[in-house]
Amino acid sequence: MYTYEHDEAVRKLLNKRTPALPAELVLNCVRKTHSKADIFLQTREKFGSPLYFLDIPALIERAERFKNAFNAVFNDFTPYFAMKSCNHPEIIRTLAENGLGIDVSSGAEFQTALNCGAKKIVFSGPAKTIAELELAVSHADRTIILCDSFTELKKLMTIGKPVSIGVRITTENNPLWRKFGIQPHELEEFINMAENTCARFCGVQFHSSWNLKPDNHVELVQKLGKNIRNLPEKHKKQIDFIDIGGGYWVEEGEWMLADTAEEMKLNKQLLNHPCDPLDHRYLPSTDIEAYALALADAVKKHIFPHITCRIFAEPGRFIAHGAIHMLLTVEDMKQPDIAITDGATNMLGWERYEMDYFPVINVSKVSETEHPMMVLGSLCTPHDVWGFAYHGSGMSIGDLLVVPDQGAYTYSLRQNFIKTIPESVVFDGKKVNMVNCTSIL
């Protein structure tokens, strides 16, 4: 039944205003891409297209920035890169060589981390199998298993070999998030049960996703602090680390098409007005230095009064964001406003650009001006969309397009749908080489 409350909800939604994406943020991205235009063009000339273009200097810069931000506020801090955000072996190898640990969520990811030389691994994720746990236990010298349930602890009992373990605490009220971890009030019971195994309990993990600002993260630290405060002293002394999880957003914020904003969706449904393809919106985010400081203040206030421990984190998106750019060639121009590329969105595995906005940049015809254009892929589906506009001085068959900063939740979601997965090239700051990494090692 439609009520007054429904009227109020609709009124509030129509009055909501998702901020316009600042032009300077987009231009910074476009200019950064233009600065590598010659490299992109030479790469296409040598290796063809479509391609994943791995930008190793950008990857290392982001990893160093994250480490520096948290090392500045914590005395003993270790980042573990969340492989699920980007499982490209060259990414994992580079980060491991630069001192990061690797956060894995399956036996396949665990094996990739080993193959890429990871020296520090945390194994998270629900419903780990006996085979996966046995693999982790066989590398106990470099591994901490983050148990997701009492069932996993019982499986470790049957394996009967020593390994360091932590436990994930359920933090979100969303029903679907209940699949992760144990309830906070079960922490003491879990530690007691672990004492009767070969496993060495030594830490607690929680995780919060999609964090544009630190508020929710800070609240979860506060809740965990209350749980730790109520533990027996002998259990407090066993906690060697707190893993504060991931979900750290990039400082540019979340970019979206105008009709993805909630109030614009409603306007479109009510008035049937299509959104301007040059109208982009965004949700602002907190820069990582301020984010780290807010988290450190919360940890010092709510956790360190009760225990002294190391701090772990599991950054994914923040580090991987600028590590991969998509290189595409225009194969066909169906109409003046429709360009079709050789690369398709099986490269990222989902209909990202029907919701998210990223600039499509024509590096064959460089210009900072953005024009309306349906830029589509070559799959036999209408949902194969790269964007609804492009930056350039024109568009022709044979032009090279770059979709920059696509390192997070693209390559790891790629799929053999209709077309094969393209090859990768690696740019080390001086030269570009091809690597054959179309599947997990």
Can you walk through the features of this model?
There is one protein chain. By secondary structure, the protein is α/β, with parallel strands linked by helices. The chain folds into 2 domains: 9-53 and 321-435, Beta Barrel (Lyase, Ornithine Decarboxylase, Chain A, domain 1); 57-320, Alanine racemase (TIM Barrel, Alpha-Beta Barrel), CATH 3.20.20.10. It contains 14 helices and 19 strands. The protein has helices spanning 4-15, 23-34, 37-47, 56-71, 89-97, 107-115, 130-137, 150-159, 187-194, 215-229, 233-236, 262-271, 288-302, 317-320; strands spanning 51-55, 77-82, 101-104, 121-123, 143-147, 163-168, 199-205, 241-243, 254-257, 280-283, 310-313, 324-335, 338-341, 361-362, 370-376, 385-391, 400-403, 424-427, 432-435. The strands form 3 sheets. Strands 1, 12, 13, 14, 15, 16, 17, 18 and 19 form a 9-stranded mixed sheet that branches. Strands 2-3-4-5-6-7-8-11 form an 8-stranded parallel beta barrel, surrounded by 6 helices. Helix 4 runs parallel beside helix 13 (288-302) and helix 10 runs parallel beside helix 13. The longest helix is centred in the N-terminal third of the chain and has 16 residues, at 56-71.
